[in-house]
Structure formats: C-alpha cells, structure tokens
Amino acid sequence: MADSPLSDSPYEILGVSADADAAALRLAYRRALRNAHPDTGGDSAAFHAVQRAWELVGTPEARAAFDRGTVGATPSPTREAWAPAAPRRPRDSRPLARSYGHPGGLTRQLYLDRIREWAGRGVTLADPYDPALVRSAPRDIRHILADALAEESTARALSTLGIAYTVWHDVATDAAGPGLPPKLDHLVLGPTGLIAIQSEDWGAPVALKRGELVGEALAGERPFRALAARARAIGRAARVKPTALVIVVPDDHAPEPLELGGSIRGAVVSLVRSSRLASAVREGIPGSAHLGGTEVMEVRSRLQAVVRFA
Q1: Distances (CA, A) of 4 to 165, 173, 201, 277
Q2: How many CB atoms lie within 10 A of CB 77?
Q3: DSSP state, 301?
Q4: Rounded distance between C-alpha atoms, residue 244 and residue 269, angstroms
Q5: Where in this protein does the record put region Disordered (predicted)?
Q6: Residue at which a domain ends, from 53, 75, 97
Q7: SS3 breakdown of the chain: % helix, strand, coil, rounded to 5?
Q8: I need a surface site. Which of 39, 44, 204, 274 has the fewest CB within 10 A?
Q9: What DSSP element (H or E) covers 241?
Q10: What CATH number does the domain containing 61 carry?
C-alpha cells in the first residue's frame, strides 16, 4: 500500500473497524478476498491489497505491531515519511535551481492547526505525525498532510533543474479571489517558460477532460480553473503571463506520464506524473512558449519585485 496519509488502512481495505475482534477480522478477510479475486470478477490490484492488508493485521503479533506504528521489530517508515524531513546536503556539486520560499510550509501549518483542533481543546498531542493518530483523523485533515508531502516532493524534483531555473514556493496570491487557496504552490521560470505548478494528492486517480480534471475524489473541485486564477493574479501584478499550468500527482494517479488538456488564456494545461515533472520542465511542456535569455532575466526581475510568500 502506498505510504500516503490518504492510503486506506488494512482495516479499511478489509471493511472492518480498527477495534474489530479476531473472528470479525478473519470473516472480513475471507469476504474481501472472495470479492476481489480475479476469477470471480474482481480486480487483481484489489486482490493483492487484501492480501497485503491481512499480512499487516492478520495475526495478533502483526496487528499489535501495526497498531503501534511498527512492523516487526523495526520502526515503521510511515512516521518518518510524514514528519518534516531534516535538511540534507546535496549528494554532488552540480548547481541547483535558485529556490525561494518554504515548500509545503503553509500546508503543514494548516495540518497542525486542524489536527489539534480535531483532537480537542486541552488535549496535548505528543506527536501530530503519529501513524495511529493520522489514520484516525477525518479524510479532509489527512488530505492536507498528503498535499504538504506532495509539495515537498515537487520541490525536491524542481531543485534539480539547474542554475538556469528559478523556483518560488508558497507564493501568496490573496488577489486570486474569495474561496481560492491563498497561495500558488510553485512558480518556475527558465528557458522553457514560466510554469505555474500545483502539487496534489487526492488519494485516487484523476484524468483530464475538456481542459479540467475529473475524478471521484475531487468532489466538485475545478483545480485547473483555480490554478489559472492564482497564476493570473501573480502575472497581473508582475505584468507577465504564465506559459503553462501544471498539476502534478502521484504516478499511479495519472493515466499518462504527461497529458495535455488545451490551454487557458494562452497557458498550456498539463497533468503530469510526479516522476516525470523535472524532465517535463527541462524539455518544455509541449505547445508552450520558450523564453530567450534576455526575456528570462526581465521576467525574473519583475517577479522578484512583486512575489510575496504565504
């Protein structure tokens, strides 16, 4: 199972509550295995997920380890993956992209505020990233943490673009309008254009349809319209125009490594898998305008004069 706050827990996959007794758990496993088996019309991915879920909670020892946030005698990587990462030295001496702002910072703060509010007034949370706590939180709170992790992952990928690129993270966009998020996740400037990027993890696949994202997990959201509004607000202040609008999602949530969806006000729309993002930016989003060296410097100066961080 994917290491995401939005991934279903073994109990959710088996269709039982976390406090189900051993008999109910075994009955649920048999039922889920029968329903998911490919020979009875089920799905192979769901079948393997049921088997993996049983490995994690099917015996008293494994279940106790899972509920403690450990697997066997070793600490679970889940907590380490969700908590803020410690700074790391670059592995080589290649120049990195110029980066400004704190990727995922505002989203992490929102998660901490919401998880503490949900826990209740006066309750002290020893570890807001404790796996058991995160799993028990409502989906909207887990979604916030998943988004923060997605933003940080995108920032790591963008840092490898090289010195020809400048990246701004968590750019404030108060002028984007009521009801919209108060920031643009990432803004990338380089020879392949000025690209506005939103990092997302909805916990389920999405697809492009007539220039907008669709998917059961979106619940009526129109992500590209919102991204265009935020990018337009920044562009208007700096008197520049974005050349591409990109939403990046986990690899298994997009049908293609890179999919185009037309354009919005001249900016090419694209849904990109996380692993494809850095190469897509270096190569240029197909159909989007490239910028000359002088033009890049001029746009950078204009943006530096107006960019504020959330």
Answers
A1: 29, 28, 9, 19
A2: 11
A3: H
A4: 6
A5: 68-101
A6: 75
A7: 45, 20, 35
A8: 39
A9: none
A10: 1.10.287.110
Residues 6 or more apart whose CB falls under 8 angstroms from that of 163 comprise: 95, 96, 97, 98
**What's the whole-model pTM score?**
0.83
Give the domain extent around 52.
10-75
Which residues, other chains included, contact 304 with Cβ-Cβ below 8 Å and sequence gap of 6+?
Answer: none
Residue 96 to residue 90: CA distance in whole angstroms: 9
Strand partners, 268: 244, 263
Structure tokens at 296: 């890049």
Judge contact between 31 and 16, C-beta under 8 A: no
Q: Sign of the C-alpha dihedral, residues 291, 296, 302, 307?
A: positive
Do 71 and 65 contact (CB within 8 A), yes or no?
A: yes
Tokens of 232: 């337009």
DSSP state of 85: P
* Pairwise pLDDT comparison (89 vs 111), residue with the higher score: 111
What's the distance, Cα to Cα, between the start and end of the chain in Å?
33
Q: How many domains does the chain have?
A: 2
Helix axes 293-306, 223-238, angle to 10 degrees: 90
Report the distance separating Cα 142 and Cα 202, nearest Å: 10
Distance CA 175, CA 184 (A): 11
Say if residue 220 is in the same domain as residue 134.
Answer: yes
Residue 4 lies in a domain: no
DSSP tag of 178: T
Q: Read off the DSSP letter of residue 40.
A: G
- Banded model confidence at residue 67, pLDDT cuts 50, 70, 90: confident
Identify whether the C-beta of residue 42 lies closer than 8 Å to the C-beta of residue 33.
Answer: no
Q: How long is the chain?
A: 310
Q: What CA dihedral angle connects 19, 21, 23 and 29, to 10 degrees?
A: 20
